[in-house]
Amino acid sequence: MFDRKADAVAWEQEQTRKLRLGEWTDPKRGRVPLSAVAADWLESRSSAKRRTREADAADWRLHISPRFGNAPLVSITSAEVSSWVGAQIAAGRSPSSVTRYLATLRSILNYAIADGRITKNVAASVKAPSGGQARRDGLHLTVAQLHDLADACQGPYAELVLVLGLAGLRWGELAGLQAGDRIWVPGRGLRLQRAVLASGGSGELFVDTLKNKRARTVPLVEDLVPIVDRWAGDKVSGAWLFHAPQGGPLSEGNWKRSVRWSAAIKAIGVPKLRVHDLRHTAASVWLGSGADPKVVQRILGHASAAMTMDLYGHLIDQNLWDAAKRLGGTTGAPKAIEAGNDEPPASESGL
Questions:
Q1: How far apart are CA 269 and CA 152, in angstroms?
Q2: Which pLDDT score is estimated for 290?
Q3: In this structure, are strands 182-183 and 189-192 parallel, antiparallel, or unpaired?
Q4: Cβ–Cβ contacts within 10 Å for residue 117, how many?
Q5: Which residues are CB-neighbours of 274 under 8 A, at least 6 positions away?
Q6: What are the domain boundaries of the chain?
Q7: CA-closest candidate to residue 145, choices 268, 261, 252
Q8: Which of 51, 96, 165, 223 could link 146 by a cystine bridge, Cβ 3.0 to 4.6 Å?
Q9: Cα 99 from Cα 97, distance rounded (Å)
Q10: What is the β-pairing status of strands 195-198 and 189-192?
Q11: How far is 287 from 168, CA to CA, in rounded Å?
Q12: Which stretches does DSSP call E strand in 8-80?
């Protein structure tokens, strides 16, 4: 095995050191294919949310297994992982998707380390593709545009546009509302306690916890009170508030077809608007009205007000200039600027 006795002695000393420190692993345990470990890893994810488990399984099956599934754990190198990341980008996959695939592979290898099969995660040092954490800026409507969209949508479900756009609900949260989730004290509102989501594979609807697993209350603006009351009617507490035509919870895809969503967003001149952008609209409307970021954070269900402002602060840029106009007279700025005229006085035009 070794050409020189010195090499054999050095190897033996290294193994002894690892044994003493508890770092030694049986080399045979690292010779199993990655697929064997991935199966155990997927099983260990049973406590994760269903959508997360489905994404994990899809990442493994479609993107990781074809390249590394049959490879022995100890044979996988950082260079191979880096090459695989580059190949994914070259194949046209988005940086954010490839970043997720890489994170999944790292998690599988970390599981192998915890299982005593390897001692090093070779994917840990591989850089994610640039732009992998980029976030798509959502579109948002004005209140007038929101009402125009509701008018452009068809059928009895059209008014849900206003619920989504003024209450800041995620689609799954709206679909998960039940008649008993209405509150009256200290004011009219909705108590969000569950979400109805669609499986990423079959599209089957299932009830899940909220995104951050915390129930929250959202207030109803005056325009939404009659809409919610009308849908609640005389339903029992556990009935779906916004039920599907044949009963049961409402799916986003069926709702969009029912209200003729594609035609409606084209009609108001915003052809790329997504349903989730109505949540962005609510953030913009509430922040633009002067609501405290802490209030908006609680409405949207974010972990902190800082997170709310990081995500949506850019939607209220106009407030910066409004504040500048209010401060103009106290900073020595020319009265023309204070009044809203950004042209300098004639005597200063040469400056």
A1: 11
A2: 82
A3: antiparallel
A4: 23
A5: 138, 139
A6: 5-114, 143-316
A7: 268
A8: 165
A9: 5
A10: unpaired
A11: 12
A12: none
Is the bond into 186 cis (omega within 30 degrees of 0)?
A: yes
Q: Where are the beta strands (DSSP E) in 98-165?
A: none
CB 308 within 8 Å of CB 283: yes
Q: Is 182 helix (H, G, I), strand (E, B) or coil?
A: strand
CATH 1.20.1250.20 fits 5-114, yes or no: no
pLDDT digits (tens, 9 = 90+) for 256-272: 999 999 999 999 999 99
β-pairing, 205-208 with 189-192? unpaired
State the pTM of this model: 0.71
pLDDT computed for residue 19 by the predictor: 63
Q: Which parts of the chain are beta strand (E)?
A: 182-183, 189-192, 195-198, 205-208, 216-219
Fold of 143-316: hpI Integrase; Chain A (1.10.443)
Judge whether 97 and 121 are in contact, CB under 8 Å.
Answer: no
- Number of helical H runs and strand E runs in the chain: 17, 5
* CA–CA gap between residue 163 and residue 109 (Å, rounded): 44
* Under 8 Å between Cβ of 249 and 196: yes
Output the CA angle 202-206-212, nearest 5 degrees. 115
55-62 long-range Cβ contacts below 8 angstroms, 24+ apart:
55/100, 55/200, 56/104, 58/200, 58/201, 59/100, 59/101, 59/104, 60/104, 60/108
Strand partners, 24: none
Q: Which token pair is 292?
A: 């405290």
Bridge partners for 182 per DSSP: 190
Instruction: Tell me the sheet residues that pair with 207.
Output: 196
How far apart (Å, rounded) are the C-alpha atoms in residues 323 and 329? 11
Tokens describing residue 165: 């756009």
Task: Name the DSSP letter for residue 244.
Answer: -
Intervals of the chain under pLDDT 50: 132-134, 336-340, 344-351
- How far does the chain reach from its first CA to its final CA, in angstroms? 82
